[in-house]
């Protein structure tokens, strides 16, 4: 084969196999402009600060706002829901007045003060219906109404939560779950990231229900398959930023705290920082 033909063949093969094509950009290079506009910031939230943030987000959820205008909103009792009730009702609620079950340290720690207990919070078209019991309210649920129920365990990868029930009749959970499903109401589950558990919530619920000998009280649990709202969803809703959890824990009051990283346009991330600065310093639920 002549030198000219050999050179032509080489050029042909290079073209055929794309070796003359523009090299593909390395990962990340194709979006240099976007990366230059993207900023990030970290946010550390204590458990009580996280509850306050979640509560503010729940109050701003479109389904909640719509139900407050043209439907029913039921706020079940709980620590996180105490904050939710404060945000929706725009008034302070004594801590302990709107709580049923509670988890204390086995030894030491602080206890809630004795306060007058509140009735279940039920709002119809935005108005508090103190004459309406929870038993009556759930029977009136309809599509589009909202039930807000906290949780004790969070299986975040599967977006499902679980709740402990200390009552023999399954308490509030046993009252509301059948009607939520039957009436196609929305279940909103505000729950902090500190309640994440290892493993599947479904498997955990199955295990605690196993009929084996129990040396102390192991309470049954129920799954809550609703719209999960953690600190991540709260920041996404309120500041339009993407968020991921980078770490957890701390000392000096930051035990159980979460370290989050927010990303987005500069203005969005700055708004997230301003928002969290407003709630940082929220005192512990039990002082």
Describe this structure in words.
The chain is of the alpha/beta class. It has a single domain, classed as Rossmann fold, CATH 3.40.50. It is 36% helix and 20% strand. The chain has ten helices and twelve strands. The protein has helices spanning 3-16, 32-37, 47-60, 62-70, 79-89, 134-139, 171-183, 201-208, 231-239, 266-279; strands spanning 38-45, 72-75, 121-124, 127-128, 146-148, 153-155, 160-164, 186-190, 221-224, 227-229, 242-248, 258-265. Strands 4-3-2-5-8-10 form a six-stranded mixed beta sheet. Strands 1-12-11 form a three-stranded antiparallel beta sheet. A hairpin with a 4-residue loop joins β6 (153-155) and β7 (160-164). α3 crosses α5. The chain is globular and about 55 Å long. The protein starts with a helix and ends in an 8-residue tail after the last helix. Residues 7-31 have low confidence and may be disordered.
Quick structural summary:
The protein is α/β, with parallel strands linked by helices.
> Per DSSP, what share of the residues sits in E-state strands of 2 or more residues?
15-25%
Count helical runs: 10
Stretches where pLDDT is under 50 for at least 5 consecutive residues are 7-31
Compressed to H and E, one letter per element, the order equals: HHEHHEHEEHEEEHEHEEHEEH
- Domains (count): 1
What's the total number of strands?
Answer: 12
- What is the average per-residue confidence, as pLDDT, rounded to a whole number? 89
Question: Which terms summarize this structure?
Answer:
20% strand, three-stranded antiparallel sheet, alpha/beta, Rossmann fold, 287 residues
């Amino acid at each position: 084969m002549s030198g000219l033909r050999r050179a032509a063949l080489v050029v042909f093969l290079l073209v055929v196999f794309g070796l003359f094509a523009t090299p593909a950009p390395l990962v990340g290079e194709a979006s240099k402009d976007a990366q230059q506009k993207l900023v990030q910031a970290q946010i550390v939230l204590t458990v009580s600060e996280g509850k306050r943030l979640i509560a503010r987000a729940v109050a701003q959820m479109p389904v909640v706002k719509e139900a407050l205008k043209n439907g029913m909103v039921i706020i079940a009792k709980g620590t996180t829901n105490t904050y939710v009730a404060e945000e929706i009702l725009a008034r302070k609620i004594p801590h302990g007045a709107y709580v049923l079950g509670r988890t204390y340290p086995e030894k030491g720690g602080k206890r809630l003060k004795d306060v007058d207990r509140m009735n279940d919070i039920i709002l119809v078209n935005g108005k508090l219906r103190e004459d309406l019991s929870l038993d009556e309210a759930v029977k009136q649920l309809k599509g589009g109404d909202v039930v807000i129920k906290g949780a004790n365990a969070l299986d975040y990868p599967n977006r499902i939560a679980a709740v402990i029930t200390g009552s023999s009749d399954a308490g509030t959970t046993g009252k509301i779950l059948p009607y939520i499903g039957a009436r196609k109401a929305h279940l909103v589950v505000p729950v902090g990231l500190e309640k994440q558990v290892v493993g599947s919530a479904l498997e955990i619920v199955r295990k605690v229900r196993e009929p084996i000998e129990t040396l102390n009280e192991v309470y049954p649990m129920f799954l809550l398959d609703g719209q999960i709202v953690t600190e991540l969803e709260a920041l996404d809703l309120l500041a339009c930023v993407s968020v991921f959890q980078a770490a957890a824990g701390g000392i000096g009051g930051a035990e159980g705290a979460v370290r989050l990283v927010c990303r987005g346009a500069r203005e969005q991330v700055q708004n997230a920082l301003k928002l969290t600065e407003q709630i940082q310093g929220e005192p512990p639920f039990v002082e």
